[in-house]
Amino acid sequence: MAEAHPVGFQWVVEAKKRGARIIHVDPRFTRTSALAHQHVPIRVGSDIAFLGGIINYVLQNELDFREYVVNYTNAANIVSEDFQDADDLDGLFSGFDTETRTYDPTSWQFAQEDDQGDLGPAQADDAGDSAEQRNTASGLQNEAHGMQVGSRPPRDETLQHPRCVYQVLKRHYARYTPEVVEQVCGVSQEDFLEVCRAWTENSGRERTTALVYSVGWTQHSVGVQYIRAGAILQLLTGNVGRPGGGIMALRGHASIQGSTDIPTLFNILPGYLPMPNAEKHQTLTEWIDAVRNPGSKGFWANAGAYGINLLKAYWGDAATPDNDFCFDYMPRITGDHGTYRTVLDMIDGKVKGYFLLGQNPAVGSAHGRAQRLGMANLDWVVVRDLFEIESATFWKDSPEVATGEIVPEECRTEVFLFPAASHVEKEGTFTQTQRMLQWREKAVEPPGDARSELWFFYHLGRMLRERLAGSEDERDRPLLDLAWDYPMHGDPEQVSSGWGEPSAEAVLKEINGYEVATGRPLSGFLEMKDDGSTLGGCWIYSGVYADGVNQAARRKSRHDQSFVASEWGWAWPMNRRILYNRASADPEGRPWSERKAYVWWDEDKQEWTGDDVPDFEKTKPPSYRAPEGSDGVAAIEGVDPFIMQGDGKGALYAPQGLIDGPLPTHYEPVESPFRNLLHGQQANPTRKEYRRADNPMNPDPRSPGAAEVFPFVFTTSRLTEHHTAGGMSRYVEHLAELQPEMFVEVSPELAAERGLEHMGWCHVITARSAIEGRVLVTERLRPLRVEGRTVHQVWMPYHWGQGGLVAGDSANDLFGISLDPNVLIQESKVGTCDVRPGRRPTGPALREYVEGYARRAGVLDGSEGPVVTASAAAQRESAAAQDGDDQHAPHQREDQ
Amino acid sequence: MIGRNSLFGPLDPAPDAGYADAPPRKGFFTDTSVCIGCKACEVACKEWNDVPENLFQMLGTSYDNSHSLNANQWRHVAFIERPGRAPAPDQPAVPTTPPVDIGMPTVGAPPSDVPDEAKPDFQWLMSSDVCKHCTHAACLDVCPTGSLFRSEFGTVVVQDDICNGCGYCVAACPYGVIDRRKGPDGDPRVGIAQKCTLCYDRLTDNQRPACAQACPTESIQFGDVEELRERASARVATLHEQGVMDARLYGNDPEDGVGGTGAFFLLLDEPEVYGLPPDPVVTTKDLPRMYQRAAMAAAAMLAGAAVSFVRRKP
To answer: Structural domains in chain A?
Structure first.
């Protein structure tokens, strides 16, 4: 955190000054460790084993916050008797289809009181085709929704029923003992137990613990399950929805939260509405119902209003009830359109053009060679950036030019480089990890031709519309009917010539939403109507422009208001600073303790009140119980804090929506020198793979010779001095000089073993590439004992490329493409490698060198070992729990 | 105005320099126990003061690639990897050369009385160094042009449009801080003495110096020296209570060789570990005595000459 988020780390330092004990769990000793009381080195990629160990510690010692757990989580729910745990099936859960490598989640469901095996309509929709969901990143209705469960699963609040979630959880993690953690993670039992004690002693009525992670944690083939494991632990210890608790993702750039809320992703639309699917969402009603899930609890019941307001914001007057608000204009998902699929499609010649906005995939994305070869096979690429980055110069100076794979004279890609305005040269909002929007003014005019993204896309749209004006072609209607009209400001000359800067505040007002007839800004999403009388571009942001005031621009000092600081910026939804904050009060609505009072039920006024905006219906008393047969908001009871979840409870156990299982299970990374100590199933069996000759993965540790060819583990991360792929730091002298060269950190022991000299050169090799850097021998890296033998870990920063004031090889060239099945994030924080002294070969010899390694490892043709390695008996038993119907139509099977 | 302690000993420098209504002396308290080595101070300093690049070279001294304080580096963050006690499990210890006592004086900060085994295991120390703005600043004493001057805030500032590049100050500084700019070619200030001004141009506008403003963890604290010294003593006491027995102050003592510094530090090890001199002494300390001796010699010579004439009496 001190490395990548030094400004946020000031609060950790502040807490330390006030007596907090800081423990840092990280493969290497970083600037964060330097200020921590204790550094716990861990083997990269073993985090679920570590967190599972803490969960086991909590459950075995009954240190969970019992009253919270019973009332606010699904711990008491009874799971179907068809469910079989990964622990019983060699690492597979029940319902595994070996052919598609996905699960049928039917057996994971909660038991039904009435008709066994009959899913409620809400569940049935989500229990759909997992292979299709993996392709389109649409599990959990496009990763945004709470799970859908029948409103009233049977419960045992004594938590003694053998099939209640609590007991299922307890059995699932029973093997994650301190001994196993030591064996798998390389963490001593003493260190591990100290973490366990610190976490549990600092949780409960009087105290709360926050889990803060940086997004490298998600970059694993089990990335979603890493976060799930953290969520389970935080729910068990009562740390969700309470002040000082929660789970916070420290984002990798400014407003990454914002670009998820109003997404730059292929599978979701603003406000976490799913991108319509060509097959499943043929009509507006089908699309809305897929979000709404008739029959389930919660606020998604109003999805119709959210979706229709978005369509009205896009198409304005053209969107009417008669034409389903132009729903047919929406593009549709037909399969995997993720960034890595797209890059491989570029290599295969299936993609014509590429827009890159402040992104440098030639350096920043996994498998750099594939990225660059893909870009070199396009008709055009548009790069908008502050400098001429590698993704704009790949055709003339990339490593593939040296190897002869890209010939500048023959490269057909036309590159359009547009200078972009930086964040201080344009107005707008940033949304940070707490979901808080903060408006920023333009401090200076952008230099020369540099312009904002808003300017670029507005005028691109304007020009396309002018070009198509008068077209009778039906396919041009979506563009021609767009509501594309914003007030201009800035340089009067530019405004009058039609090239002005669109007002970002006008866009914010449209995002907030307003009454179509009067233009009155909405005060919040509760005012959104599904009849076309209101429009709003992002329902969760509704309220940011309430009363016509830019609420994100508020800057009241924290010294002049309560500790929640509600009048600094604006947080979605409805300016709530802590989500699900009903959980900060006990079931009767009283604060858990005076020290942790936050939101509570005022018996006299008969309403929820407190320091924050209550995340609950204001006048619904804690004693409210839902009438039989109710659904939607009415089905949320007075003790259901998790109002967006299908049952109002925090999900210790996720009966559907996750492609890879209802509970996080330790799987080894795709590339690991170790066999999975817990199961026969080596790595995530459902992971997304692209097996092809240009994407070889290093071999499974079972294959002969694997350990000799790629014996070491490597990981990458950031240095404080540089920013991600270096586009904002390597080109700036005052930053570039701070870390002027690519380097490789190794322990003194590894240096001795491989003959590496401090400040000499070394190179690191995987089946994809070999890169070189200077050797930094440091005790900050130390070998670990794992499964009875020593493992060396190598660390590299990933900021360098061939451009900029300081050039160097790119660490991301070492990674292959292997993805988490839920959200298609790449495994780019762990791999296996070899390290050798001296510089790497150059020119065509580099490819021969790398291919020699791949050949020796037996993966030259991209045909590394099997993905499913659980025992045949376990596979058979798991498959038996599938639903009778053949859910997987052949065309939906993923390409391998 | 020449007082008893004008060249040595405790003193409030601004009034001593002749400012009638000087504001309270300003300075830095750099608390290295919370430094995270982000180098924001280095960058903020360069941006505000228009200091050009220093060197584009990886040095291999942990994460320090700025080398030292010099004309192009007015803030410098040192990174010290202090070896751990024990080798990693099942690994042979990497042989290290034991330190050799070369008989350097050990006055200054008291040596740690913490036994080795009670010290923390591997440590990564970081510290942002800067011009000390000495109470008795030798650079200022030797400057022949008046380019270096004592500001009303008690700080020492170079006026680079007056400096003639003679370099006397470079040799005079006991910390090796001030330096003549060697490059880049074309910079109008090549050859001119350069160092931290404690952002004189910001102080006159009631602004904090750029480095202190940028520091995310309040490792660099700016304020009235007197108040900072109290704060620093309290911080050391707190750290001692928390068991960090190695915490000590450096430069806060008005009785030390430079009369105390305007920029002083809380360190977690001996000053030498951070590259700081253990017992700096103002190099002009002996000037009065030297002048006195010279004057005596001159007087003696004059007297002798006079006597020789006396004997010539016819």
So the answer is: 41-251+587-667+867-896 (3.40.228.10), 688-857 (2.40.40.20)
